[in-house]
Every structure is written in structure tokens, then in C-alpha cells.
Design brief:
The chain is 49% helix and 24% strand. The strands form 3 sheets. Strands 6-7-9-10-5-11-13-12 form an 8-stranded mixed sheet, with helices on both faces. The chain has a 4-stranded mixed sheet with strand order 1-2-4-3, with no helix packed on it. A hairpin with a 4-residue loop joins strand 3 and strand 4. Helix 4 runs antiparallel to helix 5, helix 4 runs parallel beside helix 7 and helix 4 runs parallel beside helix 8. It starts with a strand and ends with a helix. The N terminus is likely disordered.
Length: 364
């Protein structure tokens, strides 16, 4: 009950009214005492809910809405998306040549990937597919640098689609890297897209959406491979530094050091040039809707932060390479100095011998 506020004060009577909102919900009660009287308005049992009850009711209503939202997410059909990286290069021309019937012509001049469609669409309207969930149609996005992204492919069919690409792949890796994601379609979605935990919800998914999503997932799975490659180089230099800490020297050959230099430089070049990590999607340039998807997914998969971490590790490698090169150069200089000293010493000995020999053979 709210605080009691005095409205009028006299010598023998006090009139007080509660600050609760509706006067009609109050009952007037009179009470008299020996020297004064008071009129008090008290809250009736038929009054409105108190603020604490209203707050509780609002909390329950919010939880109910939140639960309904979660249930809606569970009900919304999802399209599985899987990204793979098992080689460092794919012959796209040969792949398209053997799958002409499934090839979807590009919408731009980008030539580092192709999109293949398998199966038949149930519904097709102006290039916008009503839903891929439960449909026999599936898509495969193949990138020249070795990534493959599959849309709406059943688990038991994945190996068959990957074999189509492996026939035209080179530089096969000993281990295939894999990542999973989901796309949900909701035509009644208020906004064009909405992000979630390991999924993205769109009003509809079409070819441009497949290209945009595939480009980010393909870069992400490939970047993971190159990060691990650089981690291996960092581990080698860490072992060298620990050995130097114990012994005060190192035994690496110049050839091995140059191999590490070449490996580090090639990894950085592949990330920048092949993956096109800093090149904006061609579709995102044309349409703000797909630019929104592209930017959201890049932030979701932390491509910029992961590249920054990769670049920091490569700088560590570069610093160690420069340091070890200086040591090897000093070793070579010391070796040459000793060679020169030995040659000069040998020349002196020969000269002394020659002088001594001539003095002994001269006639008296």
C-alpha cells in the first residue's frame, strides 16, 4: 500500500487518503477517538494489482514470449551447411567440364569459385527458392583454393559429392577439415535477416545468398588450415629458442631455415591472394541485403581477428628468422676469417721453409 499523505489538518480531525490510483476501489471507514476523529480511505479487496504483482506478471509474460520465440526457432526448418577443406588447389575448368548440366553460370566476373546444383527444385519463382528444407535440390560451392561448401546435402551423400571435386584437386591434405552451420528460412521474418547461435535466419535463400554464405564459410575453413600451419612454424622456432636457452647455441642448417622462410611466406601469400580475405564479395557490392549477410558472417566467424592473430604470429616468425640469419651469417664470417688466418699461416710457413731450404743448399 502506498504512503499516506495528509490532505487537511485541524485540531480535532485528520483526513488522510492513500495514493493508490482509483478512488472507486476504496472503502471509507470512520473511526472516532476520545479527543479527535480520523477519516481513512482503505484499499478494497476488489482493487487493482499492486505494482509488485504487475511487475511479476510482466516478467511471466516476457518469459512466455521468450519461450515462444525459442519454440519458433526450433519449429523453423533449417538447411544444413557444411564446409570442407582437403586440398590447396582445384581445377575449376575440369570440374565444370564434367558437370555442365549442374553448372550455374556466374552472376559476375569472379572466377575463383563455381556453383553446382544437383536435384530438381520443387518451386522456383524468379530465381527465388521458397524453401530448400526437405527438398531434393542441393548446392555445392567449390573454390579454386580448395574449399567446398555444401548446402542441403544429406550426411550419407557428402562423400559422393566430395569425390566429384577430389578428381580435379591437387595438393591433397592428409586430414580433411570440416565446419558446420545452418540457414533457416522464415518468410514472415520482420527483418531481412536475423543471426543466432550457429545459424542465420533469412526471409528466403536464393543463389546470391548461397554464394555469399559459401564465400565466408569457404574462407573461414581455409584460414583455419593456414593458421595451424603457422602454429607449426611457431612451435619449431619455440623449440629452437628453448634449445638455445639451455645450450647457448643452435644447430639448424641454413637449408632448413630457408625452408621455414619459404613456408611462412607462402602461407601469407595464399591467405591474401588465393583466399581474397580482404576482397569484398562481388554480390555484397551490388546489394545491401547481401552485404549485411557478408558482414555479419565475417564478424560471426571472426575472420579479421583471426587474420590479425595470424599476422602477429608471422611477425614473430620473421623476427626469429632475422635473428637466426644473423647468427648463421656471423658463423660464416667467422669461418671465412679462420680460413684466411690458416691460409696466411700456411703461406708464412711455406715462406720460412723456402728460405731455410735455400740457405742450406747454398755453397760455402
Amino acid at each position: 500500500m502506498g504512503a499516506i499523505r495528509p490532505l487537511h489538518h485541524r485540531a480535532n480531525s485528520i483526513l488522510t487518503i492513500s495514493t493508490l490510483p482509483s478512488p472507486s476501489t476504496f472503502t471509507l471507514i470512520s473511526s472516532f477517538h476520545s479527543n479527535h476523529s480520523s477519516l481513512i480511505l482503505r484499499h478494497s479487496t476488489r482493487s487493482r494489482l499492486t505494482p509488485s504483482l504487475i511487475k511479476c506478471n510482466s516478467s511471466l509474460e516476457f518469459k512466455h514470449q521468450e519461450k515462444a520465440s525459442v519454440q519458433q526457432d526450433l519449429i523453423t526448418p533449417s538447411i544444413p551447411v557444411r564446409a570442407f577443406f582437403f586440398s590447396t588447389s582445384v581445377d575449376l575448368k575440369g570440374l565444370v567440364e564434367q558437370n555442365k548440366a549442374n553448372f550455374i553460370p556466374p552472376a559476375s566476373r569472379m572466377t575463383n569459385y563455381v556453383v553446382l546444383r544437383f536435384g530438381n527444385l520443387k518451386t522456383e519463382l524468379n530465381g527465388l527458392y521458397s524453401s530448400l528444407h526437405g527438398d531434393e535440390c542441393c548446392f555445392m560451392v567449390v573454390f579454386q583454393y580448395g574449399s567446398v561448401v555444401l548446402f542441403n546435402v544429406r550426411d550419407q551423400e557428402i562423400d559422393g559429392y566430395l569425390k566429384l571435386v577430389k578428381r580435379h584437386a591437387s595438393g591433397l591434405l592428409p586430414e580433411t577439415r570440416k565446419d558446420e552451420y545452418e540457414v533457416k528460412e522464415e518468410p514472415n521474418l520482420v527483418t531481412w535477416m536475423q543471426g543466432g547461435l550457429d545459424y542465420i535466419m533469412l526471409q528466403y535463400l536464393n543463389i546470391d545468398g548461397i554464394r555469399t554464405i559459401g564465400s565466408v564459410l569457404g574462407q573461414s575453413i581455409a584460414l583455419d588450415y593456414y593458421v595451424r600451419q603457422v602454429d607449426g612454424i611457431v612451435a619449431e622456432f619455440t623449440d629452437i629458442n628453448r634449445g638455445m636457452e639451455k645450450t647457448g647455441t643452435f644447430t639448424m642448417e641454413r637449408k632448413k631455415l630457408f625452408q621455414l622462410v619459404g613456408k611462412a611466406n607462402s602461407n601469407l601469400a595464399d591467405v591474401i591472394l588465393k583466399l581474397g580475405l580482404f576482397e569484398r564479395s562481388d554480390i555484397a557490392w551490388k546489394d545491401a541485403k547481401y552485404a549485411q549477410i557478408w558482414e555479419y558472417l565475417r564478424d560471426e566467424f571472426e575472420l579479421t581477428q583471426r587474420f590479425a592473430s595470424l599476422d602477429f604470429k608471422l611477425k614473430f616468425v620473421e623476427h626469429n628468422i632475422r635473428f637466426l640469419q644473423e647468427i648463421l651469417q656471423n658463423r660464416k664470417a667467422d669461418f671465412l676469417e679462420w680460413v684466411i688466418i690458416i691460409l696466411i699461416g700456411a703461406e708464412i710457413l711455406i715462406s720460412v721453409y723456402d728460405i731455410t731450404h735455400k740457405s742450406l743448399v747454398l755453397p760455402l
